[in-house]
Structures are given as structure tokens and as C-alpha cells.
User: Fold these one by one.
Assistant:
Number 1:
Amino acid sequence: MFEQLDLLTLQQYWWMIVSLLGALLVFLMFVQGGQTLFGALGRTEVEKTMLVNALGRKWEFTFTTLVTFGGAFFASFPLFYSTSFGGAYWVWMLILIAFVVQAVSYEFRTKPGNWLGRKTYEGLLFFNGLVGTILIGTAVGTFFTGANFSLDIMNHMTWDHPLHGLEAAANWRNLCLGFTVFFLARVLGLMYFINTIDSEAIRMRAKQQMILNAVPFVLCFLTFCAAIMVHTGYTVVSDGTVIPEPYKYWHNLWDMPVVLVLFLAGVMLVLMGIGLTIWLGSRKGIWYTGIGTVITVWMLFMLAGLNDSTFYPSLTSPQSSLTIQNASSSKFTLVTMSYVSLAIPFVLAYIVYAWRSINKVPINEAEMLDETNHTY
């Protein structure tokens, strides 16, 4: 079946799969966002324990998706992996450290003999929620704004900046996307608490926090969208030459009407979920905003990689810019991986089943005080 597809179709297929994984990762970062809200929502130790355990039962989903996203990107577009991870290693190391301390914090926060104290691990969870979201958003921003690398004829990479990736934070567009992801993660985290915790006090505080986080999220998102629409990107012409194109991503949006419609639909779902939570007091807002987040981020990846775009532009050597054509694996590898991808629906079905099983009963104070139950 997949053998009959041409190489470009396989490359586009895997760009869509990798992009979907990235979109799911952004949604699952509600865990990171929620971790930055323990102090604002938890007034007592029991309330804080309820918040920690609500997220503690889901942090593996985010971590696993991050690893899967990275692995799929490596297997399908190895030149990006070797270029970005090999050159911008400081930013990726900080992201890795942020996620390692998250795992440690959940496991050791309430362990007997915890001489560092609960607040230390809660501080590390805040670090993960702040640094992890902003840096991932900043790194994804370079898909549109570019990075400082060059490749020779053998694809040997030279990183042309001494900060090795951290310089991306000096670009306001990248930072804008970073803070978009940060505030979106907090909005989703608040919605998740409202949906899963049986505490009227926590729900009331979460609703109060919604406006404080939804407003900067919307402002940052709109600013980033406006910035990339007027940004000069790069396009690949028929002979393989990379040339600058003013308003590249605006053109992409209109050249791909399906992407345009889905992007607008995703944005509307995000705003709908926020509105239902703030003005109608709904506990189901996370599903509207969550689905909208996945669709919107997925379509942003489509803007970055399709329609003869360079999904990782080089600022110092435009002809070194990466595209889905020059950065992909061989046809044999993509065909083999495509057969493996047929198992994805079954994996997603299991995740949905596990999610529903974990969330069948809302977290309450009595459960946290019951010493026979495992708590983080």
C-alpha cells in the first residue's frame, strides 16, 4: 500500500503525523501550566495535595508524548534532529532538565525521609511549568523565524552563534510564541482543575484566575499570528533554490484553504471553551479548548512545512534551510514507518480508555486524607 506512494507524499504524510504529535504535546502541557498555579489555588496543604495529585496522574502522558514526538521527528526528518539538537543544544538541554526534575518531583515530594521538603519539589514543578513551556514555544518559533546554522555539501552542520540555541530568546516573535504556550498551558490547567477536582473553593479560585491568564494568552497569540503573517519567509522554487518571499505564511494560509478553515475552527473552539468557563461556569471547557488547541497548533505546523516552505530556515545560509524534502529519511524508511503508524489509532484508543478510567471519580479531600491511597 505505502510502497505505491511517491516520496513527496510520504514526506507530507509524516510531516502531518509529527505535527499532530506536536499539537497533542501542546495540549498535554496543561500539566505544566497547572504546576505553576499551586500557590494561587491551594490555600491549605490538603488543597495543594489535591492539585498535585490531579496532575500527578497525568504527567506521564505529557512526558511520553514529548519522547514520541522527538523520536518520530528523528526517524522521519533526521537532518532536522542532527541540525537542531546538534547545534542548539543548550536550549534542548534546558528543556530536558526541566522535564527530568518534573519526574523526580512527583515521585519524591511525599516520600518518607524527604529532607528537601515538599516546597522544594513544588518549586521544581513550577520551574518545569515555566521554563519547559516557554522554551518549547521559543524553539518552535524558530520554525518560522529561523536559526543560525549552515550546512556543507555533506550536510555537516556549523552553528553560527556562541549561545547554541539560547539566542532564539532574543527574537521577540519566538518569545511571543513561548509566552503564548505558557499562558495557554495555564488556561488549560485551570480548566482541568475545574473539571476533575471536587472542591468548590478551588473551582472558584480557578475561575478567577481564568481571566488573568486568558487575556495575556489571547494577546500573545494574536501578536504572534500577526507577526508571522507579515514576516518574510523562504520558499523553494522548482530548481531547489531557496528564495525569500514576503508574507510567505499569509500566502500559505490562502494557498491551502483546508488549513485556513481548520485553523479558524480551532481558534473558535479555543475561545469557545474559554468563554463557556468564564461566563457560563461550565466544567467542560477543557474539551472545547483542548480540541481547538490540537487543531490550531496542527495547522500552524502545516503553515511551517507545506506549500514549498522551509520548516527550519537558516539565517546565515538560506540555501542550508531545511525542508520536508531535503531533511527526510529514505523512502524505504518512511514506508516501513508508515506501516507502523497504522497502530496509532489503537494506541490513541487505549490512551482515551486509560484517561477515562483515571478520571472516573473526581479527586476530593477525603481521598487525599485516606492513608491507604497512593498520593504524590
Note: The beta strands are 149-151, 157-159, 233-236, 242-245.
Number 2:
Amino acid sequence: MVGRKGKKTAGFPVSGVFRMTKGRYSGLPRSDLAAFIFHRIEDRTEAISGDTIERLEQNPEGVSVVTFARSGKRDFDLVIGADGLHSRVRELASAPKATSKKISAIRPRPSKWKATRRAMNSCTSCTHRSASRSAASRCATTGRFTFADEDPTVPPDVASQKALLRNRFGGSGWECPRIFEAMDRSTDLYIDRVSEIHMGSEQRSSNYGSLQGSWTRGRVSLIGDAAFCVSLLAGQGSALAMIAAYVLAGELHRANGNCAEAFARYESLFGPFVAAKQKAALRFAGSFAPKSKLSLFIRNRIFDLLAVPGIADLVIGRDLADKIALPDYERFRFGS
């Protein structure tokens, strides 16, 4: 953590994160991960790109009829929505949801600005906002701006988004002018409000059948951010989505066609784990955009204490450790 002039105000070594995760800590670009997974299945699985779902229906036999904007109608035995925070499948299936809006995050990813070492520096020179840059081993540096806003409306175009950033962080000092220069050359800009998705678990019925679980309606289920977004505050979105996919696929295989049983088991096994991750994210929210100078001071002192192994394990070790026993599904292997 640094101040307006770049002087260190708090911090702890990344080695502590490796210790608390027992060396099982890594990061890679999400686009690389997605490309790797796709290339593993592209010869065996049909892929429809550049399309969107306009309608989703379930008939008494439980067969899902999906109407695509360009590809027409198709019948499917199951529909699994893995389409993110703003899930279209979740919306069409009328699954209950509650979005907890906390802060807005705008992340410019400047091109042609190479990192010198693997690290993350964050500047919180005033309350309610912070700027940071993180370096990876082979990628350009990622710049991130986070700020609190009562009305986190997302500007409709890139030019307006960049103008908003300059207006909010123009006087923040540190390396912000350098980040802005790189941002102006870049088209890779991501902006969204930081939200969690909490699904209701009450039993109810609709045109799509009765709700079997908070992530399921009839023969439609959700995984990843579509079901349980833990937000930028918690991280691990891709990892949690992959674990959810593993459990759901394994339970579908084990249930031998009984999707209701598989969906119920999937949520029973994975739901409590995700709920704990979401609670941890909310505890950490204040560190991104402290609400007062006192909050900022306390945040910095806590970050200093995280350099002490015992204290670090006590404060955030429980949130970093993934305490879940994943089933070993017999005869179920990827690609089989």
C-alpha cells in the first residue's frame, strides 16, 4: 500500500499467501484458461458462437426448448446456465435472485506497459476510492480503479468510461497519470459494479415447474457467477465455477439420469462452501474503498500485521483455505 507520492504506507509479503495456501496459490489469465478448456472439447462438442438465448421453455416431459436469436429453436435434455453475473439463463428461468451491490470497480488493462516483477501495489490516497496495478510474469500490467458510489450506473461507451475514471482519479497522484496514458492506448477496458448473487431457497412454483433448489428450476440449473457470484472482493470466480462444474457433472453421472437428485446433491455439497466465500468477501469489502480516514488507518495497520505468520493465519487464513472435500466420482473422468 502506498500514498499519493508513492511512499509505502502498509503491506505484507506475498510469501504469506503461499504459506497460508500451502503453496497452492497461482494465477493465470482467464482467457487462456477458457481457450485451453475449449480446445479440449471442440472436436467432440458442438459450439454455437455469436448468438444469444431469447426464450426458454419447459414442457411436461421436462425437455427444455431454447430459442436462439439466430439459430432458431433447439431441444435439450438439460440447460446449465454458466453465463456469468448478468445471466440470461437465470433471468429466463425466473429463478429468484438478490444482487448485493457494494462498490463499483473499473479495471483498465493497459497494453504496452510491462511489469518489472510479480507484485501488486495499491494507492489509497483518500477515502472511498483506490487505484492499483498488479504484475504477472508474462502479461502487461493490469490497472484497477475501485470507488464507492451511491448510484453505480455504468456509462454506455468506452469514451465515457475513461472520462469517468479521469474525473474520479485525476488528482490521486501516484502512478495514475501513467495508467491513464496507457489506458488511452488500450481498448481492453472492463467496467462493472461489484456484486454478489444470492439465490433464494424457498419452495415455489411457476411456468417452469417447481423450484428444486436455489440454483435449479425444473431441468435448468446454474453454475459459476450465474448462480453464486462471490464478486471481485473474494476472487476465485473461475476456480469456483470449475469446482461447481466438476461436482454437477459428477452428480449427474452418479444419478444415472435422475437430474432432480443430481441437482439437489450438487447444491447440498457446494452451497455451504460458496456461502462462506461470500461472507468472507463482505468482511474484506472495506479494504478496497475505506469509508473514512480512521478506516484507512485501521486497514493499513491490519495489512502490516499480516506480515506476522500467526496473525495472518488467524485473520485471513480461514478465508483463503478451501475447506471442502470433493467427491471422487468413480468411473467419471474428463472426456469419458
Note: The domain at 15-97+199-320 is CATH 3.50.50.60 (FAD/NAD(P)-binding domain).
Number 3:
Amino acid sequence: MPEPPSGPRWAFTQVRLSLRRPWTTTMSTSEHRDTIHVAMTHNGITGLGEGAPIARYRESAEDGLRALESIRPTLEAMDPSEFQKFSTEISGRLPGQFAAKAAVDIALLDWVGKRYGLPLFRLLGLDPNDTPITSYSIGVDTGEVIREKVLEAEAYPILKIKMGLQSDETTLAAVREVTDKPLRVDVNEGWKDRETALRKIQWLESQGVEFVEQPMPAEMISETRWVRSRVRLPIVADEAATNLRELSQLVGAYDVVNVKLDKCGGIQEALRMIQAARALGLKTMLGCMVASSLSITAAAHLSPLVDYADLDGNLLISNDPYQGVEVRGGRLILPRGPGLGVTPCAAPP
């Protein structure tokens, strides 16, 4: 009798991505980010995935790699064709480690798309012409550098400005010195009380701002609801919306949910969060961490489903190992190849 086919082979690596400029938010300043890359090969087809862990969620690339190695026998015993069952099993065996789970899930869906010769957007029944315009993020910096960053971002019609520090007014003034583009403001939990948040958002209402993201710490939902009842600008949940269970409590406090593959654990869970948010009457945005085109392209395949996109993590790095989703006039252009459609960049000479 012929031997049964062997299970999938998995490879896990840590990749250091170098930022074009130091990246500063209310949480930290960094010049690089370490991400988890996985490759799963089965029946001659290789699926690729990436997860970008950050300290805010008590995750690191090193811990994620150790966690994946600890469940290697489970990974190698399962059939990737059963990708929903596969992801459910892995989720139960990896407490936390959502970026590592995202890397596995992305690799699974890349493999499935390649197995059936379909781009992921087609596998999901989506129209690639429905992708939104992505914002381009401007990190916290001095006024002079912020002006330089804004001028360098001339090709992007919507900017996302990082705030949440004592320099907020100076930051916005520097931006407005060189552009009148629509702005989105991301506070990253930086305003610590409701009175400050109310005052700042009322000020932003006259500054050409579309919405404000995560103005206060994630746990301050009742305080955010108090602010929301007193302002006109929509408020976006990011750190307050990491999983499905949290969504119902956000109604009335937030207008939009920022879904990130690395927060929730991958493409399949992100899809469920988008559908659940919509059922609750919330709008949706697809966001990202600093990551390569591998992770950003995976998220971009879901973007025809959402109202807003902030998928620029690959645009902030100087050593992207992959080519995938493109941005033209700010709009996300999905690759048409099977699976994610990403291809390795040529190695530098």
C-alpha cells in the first residue's frame, strides 16, 4: 500500500525590518521592528505568513517563535486544506501570541489560494476594485522633521498624524504649514482623562480632521462614551478592540473599529470581527503594525470589506523583503497572483 502523504513542513524565522526614520508614538521610539515569518510547505506548495508582535500586547518575536516551536508537532500533523479547523486548533493551543497566530493563519490562506490557483480576494468573493484609499502615517517628531515627512508623503492624499503628547498643538501646526490634506489623528491612548480628550477633540473639529483614533486608554470605555456624546468627530477604537468579545461594549463610545490581523490572530478572525462590527452598526477600518509587504498584503485582501484603511506599515521600512500590494494615488492595488500574490524582492547586489 502507498504511504499516506506527509504533513506540512513549517519554517519559522525572525526578520528585522529597518524603519526609514525613527518611529515615535506615545508608547515608544524605535528604529527597527522584529517580525515573525513562517513558511508552510505541503504537496509542493508553500504558503507564507508574517506576524508583527509589539510590546503593548506583551508579545515579542522571540516569544512568538518559541511558542510556535512548542506546537510544531501539532502544526505538522494537521491538514492545511482544513484551514478553519486548523486555525481554531492552533488558537486554543497558543494562549496570547496573536501575532504568531496571525503568521500561521496568513500562511494557511496563502497556501489555500495557491492550491486552488486563486487570489485571496477571489477566494473570499471580493471585488479588488472596491479597495479604499489608505492613509499614510506621520510619527511624532520635531516640527522641522514633521514638515519634511509631510512633504515626502506628497503622493498620499490622506495623512494619519500621531498625537497624544504635550506637543500636539505644535505637531498639527507643523503639518498645516505645508498641507491642507484631510487628516486622521491617532492618539494611541495618550490622553489620560476625559476633560483633556474633550478639549483636544473639540479643537481638532476645526482642523480638517476626519476622525480621532483611541483618544484614551482602552479600559476607559465609559469615559470615552461621555466624550463621544459631546463631540462631532467620529472616534475609532484600536487598542480597545482586540477581539470579538470586546465589540459589543464599544457601541455608543466608538463609531469605528480598527481591525488588525496581529491583534486578533489572522485573516479569518479579522473577517469575523469585520462582520460582527457591521452587525453592531459600527464602521470598520483595517490597520496594521510596522511590517513587510507580506503582512500588509494579507490585510489588503480584506480591504474591499471596510470603510477605511491604514495599511502603510510596509511603506515605513527600507528593507522590505517582499513585493505585494501597491498604492497608486493612495488607493490599494491588490496583486492578482494566487494566494497573497506576494513575490520576494531581488537581493541587493
Note: The chain has two domains: 9-117, 123-344.
Number 4:
Amino acid sequence: MVVRLRKRPKIYGFARKHLRNGLFHRAALRMMPNEGERAGHWDKHVALVESKTLKGWLDWDFIEEEHIRPQVSGDRTLYYLQYFFRNHLTSMPVKRALSMGCGGGNLERALIQLNAAETIDAFDASPESIRLARELARNGGIGSHQIRYEVENINQIRLEPGAYDFVIAKMSLHHFENLEHIYDEIRRSLKPGGVFMFNEFVGPSRFQWTDLQLELANELLDALPERLRWSAPSGTQLSEIGRPTVDEMIKMDPTEAVRSADIMPVLSTYFDIVERKDYGGTLLHLLLTHVMANFDLNDESQASLLRTMFLFERTLIAHKVLPSDFTYVVARPRS
């Protein structure tokens, strides 16, 4: 029943909203991977991610400074956290903040180093991620009284009401299935005047790229010189960007983009958006995750080629040919 309903998103959304905790909800939960399966992928890979051995398209300084910051902060020298502090925190440090889906802890360490909060609670479902986060914090001279890392099932989390000045999620919401419950808990956990900020992938769930998206991404690939088409993840030449099957996605990581397309629609039930800055990735994510390592950024011709690709994607999004798959959002609880 759940599989059939998923193919009809409007009916599925209605059922999730109105039949929660009933037969439908229990059936859906039985079909979800258990929390151990969900955490297993990150237990294996968190150290590689934390060390930037595994690099996605967002992990390159050139992309951050030349493409993302100009669209989010309007200043290639101003990181999104600094932009958030300047525009949405009246004073720093705040007393207490929360990070949802903290992984190996680089965000929370940055928040402490930037004097954003006196104390931070940070939760993740992966025991190895929490172990590594605690170790790296200790090595950086940050005590447990400053950052409290805990293993938590985020999909079933219960948060202390009225506890936090801000709640933050960095590239973690797209790993959460039970968005309705999580948003409701975050809303209740914020102090009066508190805000929820996230920097997030909101593109097609389970990476089910649209036909137009694939067509345009492959046109960009075909335009690259042959020497730049090697795929870093596979070590082979990339001849085509394809659409993974849902089964392949679940096998790779049961949580990856599980309901990413629902992140923004569901948010509107619980929060009012104060600020939203889309920054693309609709084509660049698909292509540059594979080939960015091939570019010599000291070669101005190759750097200019990347800038042309950035402009191509921005233009298509500005003219609503494509949506943006990545966004920065600040929101306040609805009354």
C-alpha cells in the first residue's frame, strides 16, 4: 500500500499528515530501514568526509568563493555562517544552540570558534560520527561543557521546549524521513524570537534527476575537453551522467535524499521563511562531484571555463528553466 501511495505524492502527503500514528504510519515505519542500517553508512564514511578525502562539489574553495557566496551573502569573502550571524543574531554568543545531524562535528567546532554560542547540543544517529566529533573537539581544546555530542534517532527525537536561541542544520535535513515530526520538535524547542537556519540540498528525492536536468548536465560534460572528463570517484572517464535507480540509492545509503523534495513544502506548515537564498547546484552538483579534481585552478583558461559553467547554471535558474537544488534558509516558527 505504501509503495503505491508513494507514486501519488498528493495522496501520500495527505495520508502522512492525517493518518500519522495510525495503521498507515506504522506500515510506513516498518518499510523504512532501521536506525542501525541508516547509521551504518555514516559510521563507515564519516572520517573520510571529515578529512575531505571524500569531496563533494561543495567542498572546493573555488566553488564556494566564486559561485556560492556571491549568491548567498553577496560577498565572496563572507561565509554563510558569518552572514547568518550578522543578519539574524542580535548578540553573540547566544546562550544555547542546537545542531541537527552533526556528523563529524565540523560545524559545531566552527560555531564555538566563531563565538556564536556558549553551549551547543549536537545530535546524530551515527555512533562513529559522535565518537569522532567528541575526539576532534577534545583535540581542538573544546570541552564537553561547550559542545554536547549525543547519539540520537533524529526521526523520533524529542527536544526540550523553549531551549534554544537558534537551531541549525547543515546538509542533514535531506537525510531525515520524518520531516513533520522533526520540524514540529524544532519549532517547539526554540525560544521566543529564535530562528531555524539550514543550508541544504532540496532537489529531487533519491536523486531522481529530471530529464531536462540530465540533458543539460550531459551537454556541459560533452563541452569539456577530454582530459577533464575523468571521474574522481570511479577513476574512469565519465562518458555520461545518468539517473540512479531508487534501489541503487537505498543500497548506497538508505538516508540519502530520502525526502529532499519535501523539505521546503513541508517547512511551510511549521515555519515562516524569513530569508531564502538559492544557489543552484542543479547541474553543477551532477557534474563537478565527478570532475572538479581534474581542473588546474592556476590555469586561467580552466578557471574561466568553470566560471562560464557557473554563469550558465545561474542564467537557467534565473529564467526559471531549472529550479535550484541547493538553498540557504532562515525561518521562524509559525504562530
Note: The chain has two domains: 1-31, 32-333.
